Fold this protein.
Amino acid sequence: MRDPGLPSLDQLRVFIAVIDHGGFAHAARALHRTQSVISYTIANLEEQLNIELLDRSRRKPTLTEAGKALLADARAVSAKVDDMRARAKALGAGLEAEVCLVVDVMFPMCRLVTVLEAFRREYPTVSLRLHTEALGAVTQMVLDGACQLGVSGMPVAMPDTIERQLAGHVAMMPVCAPHHPLAAIEGVVPTAVLREHLQLVVTDRSPLTRGQDFGVLGRSDWRLADLHSKHALLRGGLGWGSMPEAMIADDLAQGRLVRLRGQDGDSLQYPLFVIHRTDDQLGPAARWLKHQFLELDYTLPHGAY
């Protein structure tokens, strides 16, 4: 048995049209060709592949078992070529092939999903790389050129090569588990008392924030590399710390965490800045993303993160 030949894209699309339009005559009308040309093309495709794709024993041709399997492949090849042509057209018009985005770990995920869903609809040919980092690591990735665009949290010493615009704020709330000793204190918890208990802190390895503390009060603290670990340890009662209010709303409602009232208040506004290099001209897709983050409503319903 000889090996299958190499079918053309046109043959595959005619095969798809015959199935999608319900026969040779309907496919011929849809493709503006004669029925004999459609029939000849399918016969040639079967000859190329050395296999019968359609059962012609009935009035309406139906897929053979082999035809069913190869139809999925034909659709995949056709779709890939369409994607390639769309990407080539976009690149020719100056659109980026890829956008790399880095966001602060405190950024509300439900809002990020909303933005990226819209981005996918607006720029279906543009690939996206997403990173989440803490503190200065967001700025570092933009500064190093690893990402074109960033949404950074607490302001650090920004180099002159970074442009920064305030986008909004996230409410941060000090909390602990209900069985933690701090939970038994009614009213305002003195700062001196907070300092006596283990504080859980998210940190990073960026040289921009190395050796700097943001909101650290405890004489004893644990430095954690990610926010979800901090969340789990807080619920386990290992310490106290501040978390994005939206992320812990359900924990507060279910009694898994309790709110602490410190002398500086029971919440603080954590700023979020959109940043990019001043010497890096953003492409259309990155500019669109930047605008979305600047216009985003950061007010969240309870339980959303």
Notes: The longest strand covers residues 162-176. DSSP finds ten helices and 13 strands in the chain. Residues 9-93 form a domain with the Arc Repressor Mutant, subunit A fold (CATH 1.10.10.10). The chain has a mean pLDDT of 85.
